Amino acid sequence: MNKTSYKINLVEDEESLASILKAYLEKEGWSVSVFHTGEEAMHYLHNGVHLWILDIMLPGMSGYDLIKKIKENHSEQPVIFISARDQDLDKILGLELGSDDYLAKPFLPKELVIRVKKLLHRVYGAGIHENRLVISKYQLDVVRRKVFDEENQLIELTTKEFDVLLYLVENVNIAKSRQDILNEVWGEDYVGSDRAVDDVVRRIRRKMERLSLETVYGSGYRIVS
């Protein structure tokens, strides 16, 4: 996998540190989303991310609570913990909860970059780590964010099309309102028409004709398995 296609979620409440780390990580060609609370990050559990970097000490929901939610939904997604607290205790607890690495504050941003590189290579480097979902004979490769038909031909989807598709597939047989989809894919601070959802759904239907993507009048959309 090309390193430029990696997506990272960084959850850090110190804004200045978060922006420094984001700059260093993006210099490597990675795409980084920053969240300052666990509650905010919870809305993006399903955005097809490749790595989480979590501060343990967050206001409200802690990094420990957040990793539990991540692992419940996506056990394969690697997590790096960062913390300024009791290092040994945090490290042990973090490992027990499923973290892959631990970095004690203060640390050099470059050290985090090195740890991230090593972890991404370990998890995805050989290209064998694939998380595939199958719906209507289409295969969704969640890690590489690609969709294939039954002849294994790639179907070209935009980022928004893939995100909407993944959200509906992960909630298969459940109707999701336009507002649900907007909050999940565009983010809760999105300002604009909810018709953006209709436009993306229309394009998905055109590209994936066999997909049973239903309009639920008064409710929104759902994919039926």
From TrEMBL:
Q: Which residues form the Response regulatory domain?
A: 7-120
What PROSITE patterns does UniProt report for this protein, alphabetically? OMPR_PHOB, RESPONSE_REGULATORY
Could you list this entry's UniProt keywords, alphabetically sorted: DNA-binding, Phosphoprotein, Transcription, Transcription regulation, Two-component regulatory system
Domain OmpR/PhoB-type per the UniProt entry, residue ranges: 130-225
- 4-aspartylphosphate is carried by which residues? 55
| UniProt DNA-binding region | 130-225
Protein's GO biological process: regulation of DNA-templated transcription
| Stored SUPFAM superfamilies | C-terminal effector domain of the bipartite response regulators, CheY-like
A cellular component term, taken from the record's GO annotations:
cytosol
Q: What is this protein called?
A: Transcriptional regulatory protein cssR
Give the originating organism.
Answer: Sporolactobacillus inulinus
